[in-house]
Structures are given as C-alpha cells and as structure tokens.
Amino acid sequence: MRTLVSPWAEFGLKTWDPFVIIDSVLERIIDAVPSCDGASLELLSSGNYLIYVNCAGKIKPFVGLTVDIKGSLSGKAMMTGETQISTDTFNDPEVDRQACEITGIRSMALLPLRYNLQVFGVLKISSSVPNSISQSDAELVELLAEFVALAVGSLSELSTLAARYLSFAQGHGNTIDSGAMAMEVIDQFVSGILAPHATNKLEKRKDVESLFTDGKLNIVFQPIVDLASNKTCSVEALSRFKTDPYRSPDLWYKDANDVHLGVELELHAIELILKQLGQIPSQVELSLNVSPDAIESFHLGELLDSLDDELCHRIILEVTEHVEVEDYAQLNSILNRFRKRGIKVAIDDTGSGISSLTHILEINPDIIKLDRSLITNIDKDPVRFSLANALVVFAEKIDATVVAEGIETKEELDTVGKLGINMGQGFYLARPAELSELFKNKHL
User: Fold this and answer.
1) Could you tell me the CA-to-CA distances from 189 to 12, 103, 116 in Å, in that order?
2) Which of 72, 137, 325, 350 lies 20 to 30 Å from 192, alpha-carbon distance?
3) Are strands 49-57 and 38-44 parallel, antiparallel or unpaired?
C-alpha cells in the first residue's frame, strides 16, 4: 500500500525539517483561534484515504488515524477544493462519524492544501465543543494553510530524488520488477527517513487490521468453578491470535488501542463469542471481557440487543482496565440498561491496581474477580491473605459474589476456601480450551 506520511525527521537537522515547522504551526493555530482546541494535517494516500500525519492540542494522540475520502468531510474538501465546515459533527451526515467519536471532535473546519495547483491534503481546525468553529475562524487560518502547503510540498521534491535513486539502482542490476513494488520502495525510503514514528504506527495499524481476517482470531473458554460442588457455573471467553510469530493477546490489544482499533477488535471478538453461545450448556453463564470504551460504543448495545431475554440472563460483562473512565455516570447509565435485561456486571483484576478498586466503588458490581497477582502464593503470604480477606468482607457488604482467579495449586485452593470464597478459576481447576474440548471436562 502506498502512503505518504509525516513527521519528526531524525537527521539531526531539525531546524529545516518541514514537519517540525508544521508541528509549531499547528500549535500556534490553536493559540490564535480561541474557539479551536485541536488542529491536524491530513495527507492523501494512494489507498483512497487521508492520514492524520501531524496533530496538536486535544487530538495530538491520533497521529496515524485514517479517514476514507468517500464518506468524510475531509474527503469532500479534497475533491471540491473548497473549505468545509461542520458545526455539529454528531448531527452532520457528511462527516466520518467514527473518526469524530474517536477524536472527540464536535465542530471543525477543513481547508484544502494545494501544491503546484494540485490539492494533496487538508488542514483541519477543530473543537470538542459543538458550534464553536465559524466561517471567520476558517478565513483566519486560510493564509496559514498556504504556508503549511508550501512546507509539505518539499516532500514531493524528496520523493523525486528517491525515484531517481531507484531508477539508478534498477539500471545496475536491481531485482525490482514491478511498478507497484517500485512505488512501495520509494515510499519506504522517504517515509523511513522523514517519519519513522508515523511510519511505524501505520505498519502497526496494518498488522492489527490483519487480525480481522477469517481464522486469525480464535476463541477459547476457561471454566469458573463452584468450589463447593466442583461444577462449572460459567465460562470466561478469551481471545487467542493465530499469528507468526506468536504474540500474546494483551500485546495485540495494546497495539490495537495504540492505533485506535481497540474497541473494534473487542467487538469483533464478542461477535465471534456470541455465535457460540448456543453451544454452551444452558445452566452455564458466559463471561465477556469488555473495556469501558467498548461498553459505551453503540455497537455493543446492538450485539446484546440481538439476544433474547433468556440468553441475556446468562451474560456477564467483565469490566477491564484498558482505559480510564472519565464519566462513571454515563457508563453506569449504559450498564443499568443492560442490567434491566438480566445481564450481570463483574469487575476484573481486582487488587491489581487503583482502577479496579475505583470501578468497584463507582459501579457496584454483581461479581468481584480477585486478580491472579493476589491469589498467587496466598497460602504463604499473610499480606495477600489479609487484602483478599478485606475484599471478601467488602463484597459481602455490597452483596457481590467473589471469584478467585489464577488458582494454580492445591494450597492456594484450600486457602481460598478458608476465606469463604465460593467461586474459583485457574489452571489447577481447568485450563482454557475450545468448547468441544470443554464438554469432555469433568467439571461439565
């Protein structure tokens, strides 16, 4: 895929690096336009999408985000060559709604960038507040857009030099034999020097996108056992990725979050999991790991709304710690809607950090899952024992069920029993497996 990416050249000659200058320009745009709290440079790729190559202000973390030319206001600015304004992105059918939700942009102006009379990208000023960006704001930034276009245009000169180098190499025995591969080499040459940061992020995004293809994501299930009856009461669905080389799920989800595909990957996994719900015995509940961002996404509601009430009563949402919750009132509003349909809420990884404890206080869960780090060697460590005991007492006060995760020895299991914990999960009890294998397990 051919891409044009940006910034932060690392030759050591940063005083003339065009993208360092653009970073400074974007920051000063935010200072100059009081209603603006974000600014970005979006460049056109040959893949028919625009890439955020420089960002400042509230949208600074979103370098590498892409929007399709079709179905976005950025694309409209590109195709028409005219400034586009959206006063409220939540009610504007022309914007890329997903990109606006990810970045938090509520109003914006998009100014086409020209070099040698050709439009090649967009300069965007934005605000997290609706009805903030006006026509007069856009006019103020138009002159700066010309300056940005001139700076970015220097990249095309560097690309020409790279093409001359490639032609020379081909004439001296280079094995490259296709135009597409030649253009890829040019892009790698230029972007690898000018923009290692953005290039790496785009490569990471491409790797994550490959996980959505058939067969890359496999689901396994680990039993959660009633310690008194030794029977499985629920199963936790876990992602496993078939990639070479193998990488653990936590690393893949971290990369997905880094390139703003974390929620999409979570929902892809949940969709695959729910397709198998009918194969799970009717007396067994299903536990789904869900981040707060995924809970607040419209698409999770769609997936759960597609289930009948009987199936909803078998669903447990385990709230994970992928991101910090900014608005617990909004999160609880959504969770309460799910609870009305019989869905239970669990807090995962309790005892591993501040976030899980905050989740408990704010969400008032039905289930508290004690993290493996708390259960490991609990039979030998009085500090772990005391902390677990305190959480068990607290759970009783709020009428929550406690599950001990990561039980790997008989001694840990016996100690968990002494604490009055009735539910357990871990390799000593049962390992994760596909459903067809779990049915052979003695606990089922």
Assistant:
1) 17, 30, 23
2) 72
3) antiparallel
- Domains of the chain, earliest start first: 18-195 (3.30.450.40), 213-438 (3.20.20.450)
pLDDT tens-digit readout, 60-85:
888 888 888 888 999 999 899 999 99
Residues 371, 405: Cα–Cα separation, whole Å: 6
Amino acid (1-letter code) at residue 79: M
The Cα 230–Cα 422 span in angstroms is 10
Residue written as tokens 């990471």?
Answer: 204
3-state SS, residue 122? strand
DSSP state of 209: H
In angstroms, the Cα distances linking 238 to 20, 144, 232, 323 are 43, 50, 16, 19
* Residue 266 CA neighbour count, 13 Å, CB half: 26
Amino acid identity, residue 229? Answer: S
Highest mean pLDDT out of 42-56, 158-172, 223-237, 258-272? 223-237
CA distance 238 to 249: 9
Q: How many residues does the chain have?
A: 444
Average pLDDT for 327-334: 92
Q: List, for residues 117-151, the tens digit of each pLDDT value.
A: 788 889 999 999 999 988 888 888 887 777 777 76
Can you tell me the distance from the alpha carbon of 63 to that of 69, in angstroms, rounded to the nearest whole number?
Answer: 17
Cβ within 8 Å of residue 403, ≥6 positions away: 224, 346, 367, 368, 369, 370, 421, 423, 424, 425
Q: How many CB atoms lie within 10 A of CB 41?
A: 29
Backbone angles phi, psi at 227, to 5 degrees: -70, -20
